[in-house]
Design brief:
This protein is α/β, with parallel strands linked by helices. It contains 13 helices and 15 strands. Strand 10, helix 11 (about 310-320) and strand 11 form a beta-alpha-beta unit. The chain is globular.
């Protein structure tokens, strides 16, 4: 089977656009969470989010096309442009039948849905836009990217809630590994800072509601005083290539994708199975796929949502996999800075993991102040850290019990 490497990174995030700004923001422990500006949140229980405030879609997309895309698709298009540019892909020299697109989204065009429903109720069915459906459906991030670059290889949209981005990258990894494509662009995009999404997650008691006046300290994974996740938005896409293809064109290699695990708790629509049982099994699947042991992995980029059940279960899962050595592996959650980007989280966090592997630097878990009972791992509190990272696991766990884990390692011939 083909070895698969990461050669391009495209990040649209609440702490910066582009891999360099994103990475430096993470290392600096920059907070990207503020009061919501995309709508008036006054009447909402949660009034904060990780918004991409410096995004101008016409920097990446033709002005006419912008109007025909939901914000999540705009994010996907921008991240794809950045990733392909970073990978220095010359499409005139490539077989476009051998390049594919896997871009997931947990929700899709919810802003478009909200706006069009308002028109339907206020002005009647004749005022609905003919672009309503193509703007709303979750596969259009992948569709628009494929159309823009005329990519005729495998194309799909994986929707596994908050595991969507990681499943997309893992499934793209498999496609290249099996020789069905030379190159794939994969990850996730999400733009769900909308009234319906915020209200819906509030109704579930999932969002942080007690830091509206102090958004900088709202997302606090693994901390005893965590009280729910903070909504985020953005996109994270990576260019994956067969190693021989990447070497032939002289591409820069950030990391090698060594293993991928995917399974399901099959337990509850929103709650993870007790004790992180299947999260542990998912990490072990990635290790087994790579032919590696837990002792070979120096860093876990955690799902780390800042909810009680996730952080407890994920910590237990890490203890299950690493056993007595669990306290020796570094664990951090960039959601402490970006908030939770839902279907885009796995893509953005894969980028962070690849850069950690390449640069031997660990992004911190900010806002970690008070240890919680039983949560006694090394969460890289508050400050980034230099550490040799031979290999790292990136975790994503979604509603419905969907679990996905990627194992990245340093590239070596």
């Amino acid at each position: 089977m083909n070895r698969v490497v990461i050669t391009g990174l495209g990040a649209i995030t609440p702490v910066g656009i582009g891999k360099n700004v994103f990475w430096q923001s993470l290392l600096a422990g920059k907070n990207g969470i503020e009061r919501i500006t995309r709508f008036d949140p006054t009447d909402f229980q949660s009034q904060i989010a990780g918004e991409v405030t410096d995004f101008e879609p016409t920097d990446y997309i033709d002005k006419k096309e912008v109007k025909r895309m939901d914000r999540y698709t705009q994010f996907a298009m921008a991240a794809a442009k950045l990733a392909f540019e970073d990978a220095k892909v010359d499409f005139e020299k490539e077989d476009r039948n051998r390049i594919g697109v896997f871009i997931g989204s947990g929700i899709g065009g919810i802003e478009t849905m909200h706006a069009q429903y308002e028109k339907l109720f206020d002005k009647g069915p004749s005022r609905i836009s003919p672009f309503f459906i193509p703007m709303m459906i979750a596969n259009m991030g992948a569709g628009h990217v494929a159309i823009e670059y005329k990519l005729n290889g495998p194309s799909s949209c994986i929707v596994t809630a908050c595991a969507s981005g990681t499943n997309s990258i893992g499934d793209a990894f498999r496609v290249i590994q099996l020789g069905k494509a030379d190159m794939m662009i994969a990850g996730g995009a999400e733009a769900s800072v909308s009234p319906a999404a915020v209200a819906g997650f509030c109704a579930m008691k999932a969002l942080c509601t007690n830091h509206n006046d102090d958004p900088a300290h709202a997302s606090r994974p693994f901390d005893k005083n965590r009280s729910g996740f903070v909504m985020g938005e953005g996109a994270g896409l990576v260019v994956l290539e067969a190693l021989e293809h990447a070497k032939a064109r002289g591409a820069h290699i950030y990391a090698e994708v060594a293993g991928y695990g995917s399974n399901c708790d099959a337990y509850h629509i929103t709650s993870p199975a007790p004790h992180g049982e299947f999260q542990a099994k998912c990490m072990q699947l990635a290790l087994d796929d790579a032919g590696m042991k837990a002792a070979d992995v120096d860093y876990v980029n955690a799902h780390g949502t800042s909810t009680h059940m996730n952080d407890e279960g994920e910590s237990e899962a890490i203890k299950t996999v690493w056993g007595a050595a669990a306290k020796d592996v570094a664990v951090s959650s960039v959601k402490s800075m970006t908030g939770h980007l839902l279907g885009a989280a796995g893509g953005v966090e894969c980028i962070a993991t690849a850069l950690a592997v390449e640069n031997d630097m660990l992004p911190p878990t900010i806002n970690y102040e008070t240890p919680d009972d039983g949560l006694d791992l090394d969460y890289v509190p508050n400050k980034s850290r230099a550490k040799t990272v031979r290999a790292a696991i990136s975790n994503s766990f979604g509603f419905g019990g969907h679990n996905a884990c990627l194992l990245l390692k340093k590239f070596a011939e």
